[in-house]
Write a structure and sequence with these properties.
mainly beta; seven-stranded mixed β-sheet; about 0% helix; globular; RmlC_Cupin_sf
Length: about 230
C-alpha cells in the first residue's frame, strides 16, 4: 500500500524569520491523521532567513537528523559542540537523557534550506551524542547513497534505531529501483524535481508512505533529489 502526502496538505508556519512545512504534527500544527510514520515522528522542511533561526532549546530521547540543502546552519550545544553545517552535510544529534542546542543561519544575505527528521530511538535514556559528515553532491548520482544507519555502515552516520536514510540525486530520464521488505515501512520525500514513484507523479515537497510493498521504482522526469527512509 502506498499513501501519498501532498506537498500542499502539509502544515505550514510562515513568519518573518522562518517558512516551515510540516509533514506530521509539530508545534502548533495538529493533524490527528498525521502524527508520524512508524519510528519517524517529525519531517520538517525549513527555510530560514539570514541571521535568524532557533535559539537555545532542549530535547530528550530523540534521534534528530538535519540535512542542509542550501546555505548553512550554525550549531551550538551544551556538550561543547560548535559546527557549521553546510549544503551537502548531514548532522545527527542523539538527544538521549537531554541536550540543549541552538541552530542559526549565520549568513548575512543567503537563506538556509534544510530538512529535519526526528526518529524515536530504540531505547530511551542513553547518553547524548553528536555526529556530522559531508556527502559531496557528486555522491549518490543516479544511485542510492546511505547517509545514516544503525551500524554506521559505509561511512554513514550512526542511528540508535533500526532505521536507514538514503539519498538519490537523479539526472533527467534516469530510473532507479530499490528492493523493499514487506515487513518494514518506507517513507519517500521528494527534495527536488519531478519523479514517478511506482508510476505516480510526485513533485518537490511531496511524500509517500509505503507499507507491505516489495519494490520501489523512481523515474526522474526532471533532474531530481529523493530521500528514502527505511523504518522498522
Amino acid at each position: 500500500m502506498i499513501t501519498f502526502r501532498d506537498r500542499g496538505a502539509r502544515g505550514r508556519l510562515k513568519g518573518s524569520t522562518l517558512d516551515a512545512f510540516y509533514s506530521f504534527s509539530f508545534g502548533d500544527y495538529r493533524d490527528p491523521k498525521n502524527m508520524g510514520f512508524r519510528a519517524l515522528r517529525v519531517l520538517n522542511e525549513d527555510f530560514v532567513i539570514p541571521g535568524a533561526g532557533f535559539s537555545e532549546h532542549g530535547h530528550a530521547d530523540m534521534e534528530i537528523v538535519t540535512i542542509v540543502l542550501d546555505g548553512a546552519i550554525a550549531h551550538r550545544d551544551d556538550l561543547g559542540n560548535e559546527a557549521l553545517i553546510r549544503a551537502g552535510d548531514v548532522q545527527r544529534m542523539s538527544a538521549g537523557t537531554g541536550i540543549r542546542h541552538s541552530e542559526m543561519n549565520p549568513s548575512l544575505d543567503e537563506r538556509a534550506h534544510a530538512l529535519q527528521l526526528w526518529i524515536v530511538p530504540a531505547e530511551a535514556g542513553a547518553a547524548p551524542s553528536y555526529e556530522q559528515k559531508h556527502f559531496p553532491m557528486t555522491a549518490g548520482r543516479n544511485a542510492w547513497l546511505l547517509v545514516a544507519s544503525p551500524e554506521g555502515r559505509d561511512g554513514s552516520l550512526t542511528l540508535r534505531q533500526d532505521a536507514r536514510l538514503e539519498l538519490a540525486r537523479l539526472d533527467e530520464g534516469m530510473d532507479l529501483s530499490h528492493d523493499l521488505s514487506s515487513e518494514r515501512g518506507y517513507w519517500v520525500q521528494v527534495i527536488g524535481g519531478i519523479i514517478g514513484l511506482n508510476g505516480t507523479e510526485l513533485r518537490e515537497g511531496d511524500g509517500a508512505a509505503l507499507t507491505g510493498e516489495t519494490a520501489l521504482t523512481i523515474e526522474a522526469e526532471t533532474q531530481a533529489e529523493v530521500l528514502l527512509i527505511d523504518l522498522p
